[in-house]
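can u pls check wat happens w/ NAI
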Amino acid sequence: MDIKFIPAEDVKRVLHFSELIPQMESALKKFSSKNVEQPVRSIVSVKEANGFLGVMPAYSSTDQALAVKLVTFYPQNTDVPTHNAIIAVFNSHNGIPEVIMDGEVITTMRTAAVSAVATKYLAAGDASTLAVLGSGVQARSHIQALSSIRSFKKINIWSRTKKNAEKLAGEVGGTAYDSVQEAVKDADVIVTVTSSSTPVLMKDWVKPGTHVNAVGACRPDWQEIDPDLMRSSVLYVDSREAAMKESGDVILSKADIFAELGEMVLGVKEAEVQKTTVFKSLGV
Ligand SMILES: NC(=O)C1=CN([C@@H]2O[C@H](COP(=O)(O)OP(=O)(O)OC[C@H]3O[C@@H](n4cnc5c(N)ncnc54)[C@H](O)[C@@H]3O)[C@@H](O)[C@H]2O)C=CC1
Ligand SMILES: O=C(O)C1=NCCCC1
């Protein structure tokens, strides 16, 4: 067996948002048309680390693609990334494993690319202020991906450690804020990318018509968004099945899911641009 290994630097070299965002738009359509076989990931909890190992298999007959991502989330890591992953790709005709590749870069970029698809459809065309809550890997990736979809004049950043918000603001030409309320008050698009298990974004702080990409809180007992904001917004998800199993923001608020992103891209469900919208991302 001759299994090729593709390291992170090679993945990074060939993966670009300009191609990845349209690919994700297409993948979301296939997912919601039930054209791929993709069960909700299995999670093995690692209680000592407040973390988990996620097993994410998928098969697309139209793409002749059979693969599995193995991803760990160790939120307390400080000297190494909190998310680490590998992806194994199999020959879909004979089941032979062909490639093992880094999955960290793909996790970083794929997540932001899907939020970019949500933002393209759900944010106002003239959206000019982006607010980002969190200052880690996904914060950076989201600023890059979303800036390719809308021309933001202002990027407001809040992080629980101000110095980290200032560092990121320096990198992207943004402004660091002391409070979430101040950071989001003028925002047309908000991204929540924290490892918080309790809500950081409150309904009363969000102006009507804003689009929120809610990316953190991927556990059934974790929340990042005020339940009132979840219930009063038009709610989109990547996967209904995953949202009902994995998202504390959805499960605990009992908010109604309006659509999967793929249904919206297919035109089966409206893109409610005028209304306050939340895209609850879990990762598929
Ligand atoms: N929806 C999806 O497909 C994916 C979701 N994620 C989630 O996105 C979030 C961010 O991921 P990364 O940027 O890769 O992680 P990271 O570890 O690089 O950054 C985490 C950020 O959250 C902040 N944070 C941690 N605990 C907090 C708390 N209690 N209150 C407020 N802020 C807190 C940290 O200061 C840091 O700014 C995580 O929840 C992660 O699990 C990550 C990858 C894919
Ligand atoms: O899709 C992913 O990959 C992840 N989603 C939720 C948090 C862990 C990684």
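The domain at 4-106 is CATH 3.30.1780.10 (ornithine cyclodeaminase, domain 1).
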